[in-house]
Design goal:
8-stranded parallel β-barrel, 8 strands, globular
Length: 276
């Protein structure tokens, strides 16, 4: 999916919602846990219930890899289901990969060639040669970790060099030598609040993938106030707040209602943008 296609989807659907498919077998409703592939069955019902209100899905690889071969089969079936039934939705493999060149090349092949997914999250700690292999695929996106929402983000990401530049700022500046707003996004946690202003001073045009709205306490309105640009420039992710809103037989219906409520809030924020 190109940047232009993503922007078109956002404004036509009046949504920049990404639904995180962090599917934990321990939290799947009892009435489907005995099915042959309960992870896929859960995902399928969540997708069908929320597709009208979101523009992206983000399966978190840890939840699938932890189940071994069966889990990866569920992941594969989920990706195929999305591509066959909802081809206009942006798919993010939340894998947080990043290693030396040859290994990154294999990771890139896995997600961009084998699974043909739109984007993958990448950790930039090992530098340019760990990221560049992902940028060699036309039409695919790297989503680089920049400023995350977890408590430990302060351990490294906010440390300053002798010039007063913080590590996340260095990541933003340096990585723009590798990719462009057409093939690179950044992960910025919703709980970072006014720090979005600092992000936008360095990366005014890039899309930001924003986890942490909902269960982690991030404010959608604050994210939009400080992080939104003329093209929207945001994909706001909600996982637990949507997919685990109910553990009863109505889980998909309740998830759809939660997604619709967020979409309606997003529509209000999008109306504030003055498009050319």
């Amino acid at each position: 999916m190109t940047r232009e296609e993503l922007i078109k989807q956002i404004f036509s659907k009046k949504s920049f919602l990404c639904v995180g498919l962090d599917t934990d077998p321990k939290k799947i409703p009892v009435h489907i846990i005995d099915r042959y592939d309960p992870i896929f069955e859960f995902n399928k019902e969540i997708i069908d219930a929320t597709a009208a209100y979101c523009v992206a899905y983000k399966p978190n690889l840890a939840f699938y890899e932890s189940q071994g071969v069966r889990g990866m089969e569920s992941f594969d079936k989920t990706i195929q289901y999305l591509k066959e039934n909802y081809p206009h939705h942006f798919i993010i493999a939340d894998a947080k990969r990043g290693d030396i060149g040859n290994t990154s090349s294999m990771y890139a092949k896995t997600f961009f060639q084998e699974y043909d997914i739109d984007s993958v999250t990448v950790a930039p700690y090992m530098g340019e040669d760990s990221v560049k292999p992902f940028l060699e695929y036309n039409g695919k996106w790297v989503i680089l970790l920049a400023l995350t929402s977890n408590m430990g983000s302060h351990d490294f990401q906010l440390t300053e060099d002798k010039h007063g530049e913080r590590l996340f700022e260095k990541v933003l500046r340096k990585s723009q030598e590798w990719g462009t707003p057409e093939n690179m996004m950044y992960v910025v946690g919703a709980t970072q609040g006014t720090m979005f202003q600092d992000i936008r001073r360095i990366a005014p045009n890039h899309f930001l993938l924003v986890p942490g709205v909902g269960a982690q306490g991030g404010s959608l309105q604050e994210v939009c106030k400080y992080g939104m640009n003329q093209d929207c420039g945001l994909l706001v992710n909600s996982s637990r707040g949507i997919i685990y809103a109910s553990n009863g037989e109505d889980f998909a219906e309740v998830a759809g209602n939660k997604a619709r409520a967020l979409q309606q809030e997003m529509a209000i924020e999008l109306e504030k943008i003055e498009r050319p």
